[in-house]
Write a structure and sequence with these properties.
The chain is α+β, with helices and mostly antiparallel strands. The protein contains 4 helices and 5 strands; from the N terminus they run E-E-E-H-E-H-E-H-H. The strands form 2 sheets. A 3-stranded antiparallel sheet has the order 1-2-3, with no helix packed on it.
Length: about 150
């Protein structure tokens, strides 16, 4: 279902080329930290992923139920906040990352449908992935020796 993602650096400081199947995009850091700002930074890509997943999931649900949804908008931001229980969070200094997502719907929807769509947005696959305690397994690849 999901295609592999390939990310590689290039000649521009911090700019990364991202390939996913036939799709290409760039990621970079802002100028104030040494990048050229030629693309979204990693945190912005993550927020965009969550926003896209939430809005698409809502559209699919509304379409399946033939609800009069005309549009969905998600606004996201990132902050660092004090952990409620620093020992439980695994955060060494008591700070954790927090994503804020505001969602709005357009269309002639009764309150019950709006509330249900909001619940559905918060159950999208990326939301579930981020809140499930994702495990990341990395391994170092050693290039073949030159011949």
């Amino acid at each position: 279902m999901y295609r592999n993602v390939s990310v590689s650096s290039g000649p521009v400081n911090y700019a990364q080329s991202i390939s996913v199947g036939p799709h290409k995009l760039q990621s970079d850091e802002p100028m104030d930290v040494g990048g050229k700002d030629v693309g979204l930074n990693a945190q912005e890509l993550l927020m965009a992923s969550l926003g896209a997943c939430a809005t698409i999931t809502v559209q699919m649900y509304a379409k399946r139920h033939q609800w009069p949804l005309k549009g969905v908008r998600a606004n996201l931001s990132h902050t660092r906040v004090l952990a409620e229980n620093p020992g439980d969070s695994g955060a060494a200094i008591g700070m954790v990352d927090q994503l804020e997502m505001e969602i709005s719907f357009t269309g002639d929807l009764p309150d019950e449908q709006r509330n249900r769509l909001f619940e559905i947005a918060n159950r999208c696959p990326i939301h579930r992935m981020l809140t499930s305690g994702v495990k990341i397994h990395s391994r170092l690849l050693i290039p073949d020796a030159p011949q």
